[in-house]
Amino acid sequence: MALLTPRDLENLSMQLEENDETIKRVTGLDVRGICEELYGTKPGSLKVGIIPITAGDGIISNFASSLLFITQYFGLEGAITEHSDMTGYYEAVSQGADIILMADDHMFVAHNLRKGKIVSNHVATGIIYAEIASRFREASSKDILVIGLGRVGYAGAAHLMKKGFNVYACDPNRGFLEKAVKELGIKPYCSEDRKRFSMVLEATPNANTISEGMIEERCLVSTPGIPCGLPPEIGKKYRVDLVMEPLVIGVASMLYSVI
Ligand code: PYL
Ligand code: MG
What is the CATH number of the domain that holds 106? Predict the structure, then answer.
């Protein structure tokens, strides 16, 4: 999985503002509104304990402070623990945290200690970016393309199937594709079919995964990025709206899903 760098997290509030404007324009709702409808929850006065974790590649300098910004932006009370790892966990729980946010290199979780609800960033991110794509007001049909069937794309495809969309998907890993066909009932996307889509969920760790033959003239591409799957020249040549932001939208989905 691609790890965030401090550079990815620069100007997070500006990235959020720009993307929220696009989301509102193309779906009719902003991130808050979509999360409230999606999960049926509204943030109350809950305390969020943010615990830096030193495992693996270790602490990302502005990751915890980014989580604090996001927690407060969505109206929750956040606090970064003074200590990391298990000491930090003990500190957060002792100080009355209702929700714990912590991430190592493989798993980033939100855990509501009061309700016992837990969610991974992969699932919450797949679901919210799928939801955004599916709400494209100018969509030409219920056909939607999912590029990438790893932990994020699989969760997004499952969510879209549950919502009754015609999900076409591709992944270079044949096993991932076969698993999604068997377990979710998605249709394998073949470029030879020359089928074009007005809604795309891109969930891969690669750049330029979207090619010209995949999209309609008017299209919404929804992706957590890192890097961007839409080649700039295609974004310019067609009337493509791009929703791409590295952390805030996925964490909002995590928080709304466990509150
Ligand atoms: C959650 C992000 C989204 C994409 N990749 C994921 C990632 O970078 N995970 C690693 C997060 C490490 C955080 C570090 C810290 O600062 O606590 N352990
Ligand atoms: Mg990507």
Answer: 3.40.50.12150
Task: Give yes or no: residues 90 and 140 share one domain.
Answer: no
Give the per-residue pLDDT at 1: 64
Which domain CATH number covers 138? 3.40.50.720
The stretch 237-255 carries a mean pLDDT of 97
How far, in Å, from the CA of 116 to the mean position of ligand 2? 30
Q: Which atom of ligand 1 is nearest to the CA of 246?
A: 3
**Total tally of structural domains belonging to the chain:** 2
Which ligand 1 atom minimizes the distance to the CA of 247? 3
CA of 4 to the centre of ligand 1 (A): 6
182 and 224: one domain? yes
DSSP 163: T
Nearest-10 Cα torsion for 131, 136, 139, 144:
-20
Q: In angstroms, what is the span from residue 42 Cα to ligand 1's centroid? A: 26
Q: Is the CB of 251 under 6 A from ligand 1?
A: no
* Residue 188 maps to a domain: yes
- Report field, pTM of the whole predicted structure over 0.85: yes
The CA distance from 101 to 95, in Å, is: 14
- Could you list the residue range(s) of the whole structural domain that residue 43 is in? 6-120+250-258
Digit-coded pLDDT (tens) for 156-172: 999 999 999 999 999 99
pLDDT digits (tens, 9 = 90+) for 92-127: 999 999 999 999 999 999 999 999 999 999 999 999
Distance 83 CA to ligand 2 centre (A): 32
Is 158 a pocket residue for ligand 1 (Cβ < 6 Å)?
Answer: no
Q: What is the dihedral of CA 170, 174, 180, 186, to 10 degrees?
A: 40
Both 144 and 90 in a single domain? Answer: no
| Domain-located, residue 1 | no
